[in-house]
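Quarterly update from the structural biology core.
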Amino acid sequence: MTIYTPPLRDMQFVMHEVLNVTADLQQIPKHADMDADTINAVLEEGGKFAAEVLLPINRSGDEEHCVLNTSTHEVTTPTGFKAAYQQYVAAGWAALACDAEFGGQGLPLIVNQCFYEMMNSTNQAWAMYPGLTHGAYAALHAHGTPEQQATYLPKMTSGEWTGTMCLTEPHCGTDLGLMRSKAEPQADGSYKITGTKIFISAGEHDLSDNIVHLVLARLPDAPPGIKGVSLFIVPKFLVNADGSLGARNSVFASRLEHKMGIKASATAQIELEGAVGTLVGQPNKGMQAMFVMMNAARLGVGNQSLGLTEVAFQNALIYAKERIQMRSLSGVKAKDQAADPIIVHPDVRKMLLTARAYAEGGRALMCFSSMLLEKEHNHPDEKVRKESGELLALLTPIVKAFITDNGHIATNACMQVFGGHGFIRDNGMEQFVRDNRINMIYEGTNTIQSLDLLGRKVLGNQGATLKKFGKLIGALVAEEGVNEKMAEFITPIAILGDQMTKFTTEIGFKGFQNPDEVGAAAVDYLRVAGHLVFGYFWARMAQVALRQIAAGSTDPFYTAKLQTARFYFAKLFPETATLMRTARTGSKVLMDTDAALA
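Predicted structure, tokenized:
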């Protein structure tokens, strides 16, 4: 049976000992009174909800799936899902980080992200239903009219209504400039939306009273390509002037996808047949509004893999301590047993430590990114808002792609720890592998994220934002450069930081001559950048652990943190050397292959 212990101690370590988030939050007027005790208390209760309510229905939901009634187009979620959602709403979890203006609790975004990590660990498929709503809320909060906000945001804040994002069409995925959905203006100022959208997560279900679809479509006079896309609110049920629900709109699910994983999440094909919609923002400027939702979703997807990495590690660790198999190569360890627990074997430890290092490194990056998002939107200093937004834009593709790639590595490694018992359903490990696999694909495949990082976020401004992150590394190197105890953590990131400048310049120069060079190097480049970022946070975590030990702490938590940091820099970080070498081989060995791919 799958177990889960909320990683509250590590969350507290990252937030309060490494990042000191309360000091930053207290600079923001609406969080001026925020303290660590409040954050910790909320997350402790959130961990209970995840472990006690969501975990018990994770496997059953995976086996039961969602069911579509093709006559009524209604979807029934697995047993227990609706009851869990009602408990989620009743406890106020939906309103956690939403503005008080719309009925929210106004807590910091980092609290919501940590809460969602725990829900992703225990039931990623269930967490997607309320999770999509946060992105839709953010888009309407940023670009909706006061009337739209008054109509939709209070209900979405309370959780009475949920939201979706409707982008993908059968003939186009990430290339949204190819979309064909149409929006016809009506005399009353509304629009009739017609088209087909596919792969719509939480597109139809029985959890909430209404579903607020945010739909991309084209106006009749729209220019071609991405510059001709507009965004519309298309509710499942029309909303009357008094806020009550009216007639059923002409938007419905025509099928549910049969998927490799997240089977309890209703991934719907949505048909719009003259559905009534209202314009969000300006005509032909839909991507500006939708990107608010998409960027939030990309951080959320990284958080999904972080959650799965954590729960996979916890279960593999328990199994490795209990399962006996062979004897240790260095001599018998469990003399009272017929064989030794498999945790004595070096490669088993490598797999376990890989998962732990990627989980804890990912948690530090996720918390840091959440604070950047908070400061970008709410800090009183315009300069801080601007710089936070720039740095977050750089890190977003790394959060999405690097953490999900690592989740794939880690969940597979943890399943491997179980051997044959991991490949069967009984222990739950294969579900973590299956559920994680989509995270590398949706919200822009990880190749798209790599192109975004290298092409737009780095080369697009001649590495200016990358240099800003480099200053963070430089400050840490300057602070700890003469500390011998920190050398094993500082030296690798200092060297890679210097190498990144030359590496980036080289790729950029080659790409100027031949754009395919950027495409050929991008995936390797993102992974190098990901290790540079993880390396920075692992060095900071090691710094805190060493200081606590030097101050006399005997808490084994700090010893474990140092051991994991040493493993990360010794066994995982050196991958960067190979990646830079393969990135430099260029595009010819890929593009001059017509015969091989004939």
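The mean pLDDT is 97.
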